[in-house]
Every structure is written in C-alpha cells, then in structure tokens.
Amino acid sequence: MDPFKRSLMMYGFKDLEIDEYNTYKLGDSLRSFYFEGLEIPISEVFES
User: Fold this and answer.
1) Pairing mode, strands 17-25 and 7-14
2) On the chain, which terminus has fewer CB atoms closer than 10 Å, C or N?
3) What is the pLDDT of residue 47?
4) What is the pLDDT along the chain (48 residues), one digit of tens a residue?
5) Considering all CA atoms of the chain, what is the largest pairwise distance in Å, rounded to the nearest integer?
6) Phi, psi of 21 (to 5 degrees)
7) For residues 20 and 4, what is the distance between their CA atoms, to the nearest angstrom?
8) Which residues, listed in sequence order, are joined to residue 14 by a DSSP beta bridge?
9) Residue 29 in 3-state DSSP?
10) CA geometry: angle 25, 19, 11, nearest 5 deg
11) What's the whole-model pTM score?
12) Rounded distance between C-alpha atoms, residue 14 and residue 25, angstroms
C-alpha cells in the first residue's frame, strides 16, 4: 500500500511462493484471486 500514490499491490501465494500479483490505483477495483465475486473499489481503501 502506498498512501502517497494511492496505490495498492496484492499478492497471491501458492506453496509459499508468489504465484500472481496485481497493482491497483484509484479508479480500479481490487478483485480477489481466490474468492469469486470479492471486489473492493480502491477509492474505499483510500477514503479521505
């Protein structure tokens, strides 16, 4: 999480290794790698 750039990196792990990752910024919605339908607007993470 970078509060100055208002961005977030999310990592997915498999067997204790990074399997996948994604970077999100304002205007994006974070989508879970593992839980279908779980989505969080990044604007809600960085509410003023």
Assistant:
1) antiparallel
2) C
3) 79
4) 999 999 999 999 999 999 999 999 999 999 998 899 999 999 999 876
5) 37
6) -155, 160
7) 24
8) 17
9) strand
10) 30
11) 0.76
12) 25
